Fold:
Amino acid sequence: MLKASSLMVFYENMLALNNVSIRCENQQIVGVFGANSAGKSTLMYTLSGIMEDIKKKEVMAGGERITVMGEIEYLGQDIMGLKPSRRAKAGIILCPERRRIFKESSVLENLKIGGYLASPAQAKTTLEYVFTLFPALKNLSKRVGGFLSGGEQQMLAIGRALMAQPKLLFLDEPLLGLSPLIQATLVRATKVIRDEQKISLIVTEQYARPVLPIVDFAFILENGAAVLEGTREELMDNPDIRSAYFGI
Amino acid sequence: MDILIYGTINSVALALMALGFALVYGISRVPNFAHGAIYVLSGFITWTFLRGLGLNYALSIFLTMLIIGIFGALLYQFILIRVRGIAISEIIASYAMGLAILEGLRWGGFKGMSYTLPVFAEGSILIGGIPVDYQRIIVVGIGGATVASLWLFTHYTRLGLALRGMAQDERAALMLGIDSDFMAVVAMAIGAMLAGLAGILLLPLGNIVVEAGYNVLILAIAVCIVGGLGSWMGAVLAAFIIGFAQILTVVYLGSHFQMVVALLAIIFTLILKPSGLFGMQKQLEERV
Structure:
């Protein structure tokens, strides 16, 4: 479904992604694990095209020089250099780190704004789907986004991303700073989304253990380079990985 | 009673002047200093259609709105987009465009007292014993309708919701497939049309003079700063506060203090509550 090969991203002379190749097959959940500043968010930005926008703004403001190299193939097409809105239209949706929900809009409005790319019929069915997936949101639908708890905000962010009708959904650190209970709910929901919506997902996390049971394949990033990859079982069997990322 | 009636009229007029500015700033964070110029320009375009080409009044207004909308979109697409995100350059570029338009109009011979637009309907009625002419009633009516339809547009239509999403977090909107450059162009077109609408509604109350462009810009900025930059409902509320304050000044102090009120309002707001009455984002950050 998605195949990115030898991605290189430079911020000025700083190498943020070093020759990273990752792929995601149809209806797979792929994990990308790595410590803080390993390049997870940069990878997500590069794949979803947000990096193109950041680059453009930096050029306009005369700021940092950002260089992106490599190839990204999505559904058999080269999408390198494509604007983020075009990629989103093709089904690549990013649910960003720290959620970035619309703080002044209500929960319902957040979801409606998320449905920008959906047809009215799609928006209606997806809205109902999001409320069955996260029943907690239904009771809060009038609440202003900024007043939600972290877990509720994350549910909203995922729901909002679903409204955009993704075929390939990126969840960037969805569990960051949440309680184990909410983490478990979200991990379960992620699997349900894959099974029911028949979409592919790439999930990044610093700490792999909560997400590991649901991933089909995973990549480990270290200092901007993909140092290891394998199926869940392969990674579990590697003693270094177990101690460093799974805490077992 | 006359304070109440003329205060309301003045407030709605101010709200009309400021809405376009507030909308553009709220969505694309570009302070459109060409706002006043667009206001005056729309008056002269209507005048040209009406008097120069002899078209029907309604048709002239329609054509003017169309042209002004396209003009706003082009202004953004070809000039402001290049300096987007660089605050000082945005102000200089848009102010320069405003100056070019206004002084260009003056240079082109649009000066003096001979340029007037006819009122939409002649005559006046008595409200509570005070004579109010129809044009001012139309201003209040259309002003109210504009605010209401703007609210409906931004709360219930796909495009309007996308504009609000972008106003709150541009990058998050991008992730949902909302093309921010296109949205900013749309916002600028709507903003320019709002300035044009204000011009067409308010200019029949007096002469079309180039200087009005500068006054309208100052008033729009005053309203937006008091209301909280980027907040549309704040702008409407601030328009009422400044509008009534102006009328009270006219009644009790003298009409030449009218402009002072708007400028003092800016100064006091910046001293007491820099984020304005409805600096929503700030307020949320403080509470959470």
